[in-house]
Amino acid sequence: NILVEQTDPELWSAIVRENQRQEDHIELIASENYASPAVMFAQGTQLTNKYAEGYPGKRYYGGCEFVDIAEQLALDRVKQLFGAAAANVQPHSGAQANEAVFLAFLKPGDTIMGMSLAEGGHLTHGMPLNMSGKWFNVVSYGLDANEAIDYDEMERKAHESRPKLIIAGASAYSLRIDFERFAKVAKDVGAIFMVDMAHYAGLIAAGVYPNPVPFADVVTSTTHKSLRGPRGGIILMKPEHEKAINSAIFPGLQGGPLMHVIAAKAVAFKEALQPDFKAYQQQVVKNAQVMAETLVQRGLRIVSGRTESHVMLVDLRSKGITGKDAEAILGDAHMTINKNAIPKDPERPMVTSGVRIGTPALTTRGFKDEETRMTANLIADVLDNPRDAANIAAVRERVHALTSRFRVYS
Ligand code: PLP
């Protein structure tokens, strides 16, 4: 620290201010979390210096005997955590994990099916500006009248369009996903079944959300969301796909793996195998339910009616405020949130009528039911009176009273 402070004070100041922001604000972005000091330390080690193209025991560089141990630990632990037969821990990110699956199984012009971005899916599942949307013919499924995944529509469209790959998984969907049903449809139409569990991975590891591994050909994930590891990706797969996926990651898509990040993934997987991780994830789900119930009591609507996970979408229209404005004003009150389109949103994607709220980060800092209820009430207090500067200042004070009782790292 002293080194960066002395050699690069400009950068150091940004780091210090970001650290302070993370301590002082209540973090409600559903895809964020606070990695443990052990995870962060592993990423700052000399492993960052090492080239290790290839896989443990089969590298294109010398001197890999110790990074091999790190990668093998990450592989063994992640397979144990999710009950997977085979894994790859080298994807630099969730998006790259998904691209590797496409590279392994598809050719440009093939048909894929995924959940529409506008109804909760991720941009790598076929959004027109993403590689997935530019290179493939995309058929999307969405939600039914109750804002649950429309499984019948998905099944009908799969039979009509015969996709080569079907993707289940979402970035803004609060309910449990019926992976078994997807698997059956994929089998019926001869498609590869891929699950992108990025958002739910920590919950799945702890057994509080359905595990897709028994049903899917391949499962991709990030490691930094509910799983609480370093930024990065992983792929789990049936053994028959291991060769294709491994060669899609290297040499197909990436060069040298980030060995320091892989070491940090190993640390995070070990943490996730401990009994207290299960208790943590149970509280994440409990806190999400308390958050949703309290917001409903305060006159807001939760998309899909409830949450069965760590995440929810809040329809703001009853308060006459857009997602864009809510994000800015809640930020002023030191609660960090992201605007998010709701199904059939009348507003533009950069404006939206909703916000997405998640509980992994606030649960890591120790919030239980009571503090989460207080947080929900603070959100509602802001939304009830968003243009009143004195109201925002009063909420900010109460946020600070909470965050100073629950420090993250200090
Ligand atoms: N898949 C899903 C479902 C996601 O929500 C995200 C990120 O938000 C990703 C993939 C992409 O992960 P990354 O940002 O690491 O590329």
Quick synopsis:
The protein is of the alpha/beta class. The protein has 16 helices and 15 strands. This is Serine hydroxymethyltransferase.
Give the structural class: alpha/beta
State the distance separating the first and last CA atoms. Answer: 15 Å
Helix content: 40-55%
Beta-strand proportion: 5-15%
Secondary structure: number of strands: 15
Low-confidence stretches: none
- Rounded to an integer in angstroms, the radius of gyration calculated over CA atoms is 21 Å
Q: Taking strands numbered 1, 2, ... along the chain, how are they ordered across the largest sheet?
A: 4-10-9-8-7-5-6
The tally of helices reads 16
Largest sheet: 7 strands, mixed
Bound ligands, each once: pyridoxal-5'-phosphate
Task: Let me know the average pLDDT.
Answer: 97
The global form is globular
Q: Can you tell me about this structure?
A:
It is found in: Cytoplasm. Its EC number is 2.1.2.1. It is an enzyme of class 2 (transferase). This is Serine hydroxymethyltransferase. Keywords: Amino-acid biosynthesis, Aminotransferase, Cytoplasm, One-carbon metabolism, Pyridoxal phosphate, Transferase. The chain is an alpha/beta fold and 410 residues long. The chain has 16 helices and 15 strands. The strands form four sheets. A seven-stranded mixed sheet has the order 4-10-9-8-7-5-6, sandwiched between helices. Strands 11-12-15-14 form a four-stranded antiparallel sheet. A two-stranded parallel ribbon has the order 1-13. Strand 2 and strand 3 form a beta hairpin. The chain is globular, with a radius of gyration of 21 Å. The chain starts with a helix and ends in a 5-residue tail after the last helix. The mean pLDDT is 97. The structure holds pyridoxal-5'-phosphate. The site of pyridoxal-5'-phosphate (PLP) has 13 residues, from helix 5.
